[in-house]
Amino acid sequence: MFYLLKCFIQMKTLLNNIDLNEALFGNSNIGFVPTMGSLHDGHISLIKKSLKLSNKTIVSIFINPKQFNNKEDYKKYPKNIKKDLKILKKIKVDFVYLPKIKDVYKDKNKIKIKLNKRDKILCAKYRKGHFEGVIEVMTRLTKIVRPSKIFMGEKDFQQLLLVKRYVEKNFKSKIISCKTIRDKNKLALSSRNTHLKKNDLSKAGKIAKKLIIFKKELSNKKNLKDLIFMKKNELKKKYNIKIDYLELRNTKNLRLTNKIKNAKIFIAYFINKVRLIDNF
Ligand code: AMP
Best mutation site among 39, 63, 156, 175 for ligand 1, i.e. most ligand atoms within 8 A of its Cβ? Predict the structure, then answer.
């Protein structure tokens, strides 16, 4: 009966904060999936988890200017709103929130985010100001939406840990982490993959496969630091890519480690001018 009812309830599109407050009034156990749009199966897996675990699910599509450390990258970020809305309707999301910049940033109360020195690693080191922008927008969106749960992907593991630490300290919302979804070639799905040509996509798939196998091989080896250093050089030469980092880090606090237990390999690299990140 409940299922039948749900089939007839239309997804509501919320274009501003007045719409949002009206729609969410009186609801509890709200699941929130923040996205920048150009939705793929990675986003959809987060949304499905929210639909399962929440009374109402709200998905936001907002390309946050503050988290781009490069203007061109911001301008070129893929957009596909018509297709996104179709997907969200089909999977029966309750609400889609499409705020304008002023809806998110009109609360002029200053939010000053400062990363600790020990957090300035991986992408925080290579994309100056990026995570400050991510944490600020997540703070603002959490204040606006007031969800019980926020669903985020392990694909962006550093982002997940930083946002979890910050949001759970300041709000009642819980961050729910969701597994990385990959295509048939093992490449992690990402909106930015649409910028890649066919042969670059296949190259990125090969790199992902290599790193999955490499991680398994590390489990019975010593001197992991040296092996990782060698793998970095091998990938650079074989695939002609620029690598920002290839590092083994503990999954709890992202410290560098030489042990495979509770660790992940983190990579950020460029194929042509497209920057890809992943972890294994
Ligand atoms: P984005 O639209 O890229 O800002 O991503 C929105 C959310 O989807 C973030 O929590 C991401 O970590 C998550 N996400 C992106 N790609 C994937 C993926 N391949 N698998 C799982 N989650 C993902």
Answer: 156
* The total number of residues written for the chain in this structure: 280
Token pair for residue 144?
């606006």
For residue 123, is it left (φ>0), alpha (ψ between -120 and 50) or beta? alpha
Binding pocket residue ranges, ligand 1, CB within 6 Å: 35-36, 42-43, 45-46, 152-153, 155-156, 178, 180-181, 188-191
Interatomic CA distance for residues 270 and 207, integer angstroms? 12
pLDDT beyond 90 at 2: no
**Whether 43 is catalytic:** yes
pLDDT tens for 138-168 read 999 999 999 999 999 999 999 999 999 999 9
- How confident is the model at residue 110, as a pLDDT? 80
CA of 153, closest atom in ligand 1: 12
Q: Give the pTM.
A: 0.96
Distance (Å) of CA 133 to CA 63, 64, 69, 137: 11, 8, 9, 6
Query: Domains in the chain, start-ordered, CATH in brackets?
Result: 2-178 (3.40.50.620), 191-279 (3.30.1300.10)
Q: Among residues 139, 141, 126, 127, which one has the least CA distance to residue 68? A: 127
The terminus-to-terminus CA distance of the chain in angstroms comes to 42
| pLDDT at residue 244, as a whole number | 98
Mean pLDDT over 123-129 rounds to: 97
